[in-house]
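re: ur msg from earlier - yeah i can do the zinc ion complex, just paste it... oh wait u already did. ok heres what im feeding in:
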Amino acid sequence: MDRQLLGALEAGGTKMVCATGYADGTVLESEEIPTTAPEETMRAVVAWYRGKGIAALGVGAFGPTAVDPASPRYGHILETPKTAWRHFDLLGSLAGPLGVPCGYDTDVNAACLGEATFGCARGLSDVVYLTIGTGVGAGVIVGGKLLHGMLHPEAGHILVTRDPRDTIGEHSGCPYHDNCLEGLIAGPGVKKRWGGRRASELAGDPEAMDLLAGYLAQALVTYTLCYSPEKIILGGGVSDHTPIVPLAREKCAELLNGYIATPEVEDIDTYIVNNSLDGKQGVMGCLELARRALEA
Ligand code: ZN
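and the outut:
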């Protein structure tokens, strides 16, 4: 059973990461396919898996998407700004042609599951995974289960208090909210504020990092208070290529101000951490989704 080949697909808005591997988290092979029009993209993805002999497929999809198997729109992409993908039956476009059991969740829930199964959150039952890149997304495990609720958490869009030093202007980088975390710290907001520059180019600028880390810290406080996680893990380009995580960690402790006095929060350096699986947390989580689909 352990050596049955499994498929893992990180279905992102800019690229599809197709991989094969095993239930122990070993990734055997992986390849990126650019995300273009839905039919063309999924034809290429299906062709990649075909003939490889996978026993099941785990999919971590960009959202919003319906992750409740009881929903009539299960596996469909919902109201995305990527209009060509709106209402596209992503899961159906894979499960039909490949004819294997499929597990399906959001890309960030998959990454959270990867860290909780194979990484630094192994053995924990309450975990938040936050990715900061072109957008901000959160995967959440509560009581050992991936959190879905009526849709799935969209904790990247929580509102934060504007820093009076912020020069971004009235509108943030989020088309929906002027004061949400994603709008203020993800790629589009960073570019808007700093003349097209990326966060990684600003990694050595203490003022820029202080501003971004302040917003992130506000969000980390909210997640700590609302989800009561045992660990918060950060991923994505902005987290991976700047010092924002250690800076936000300090600010988060300051903002909590001793109110949450648990051993986890008191050891803030191990409470708020960078991802531990070399960027493979998403794909490895998809392998676990595939393993679970096979067992179901
Ligand atoms: Zn927003």
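cool cool. DSSP finds eleven helices and ten strands in the chain. ping me if u need the other ligands too
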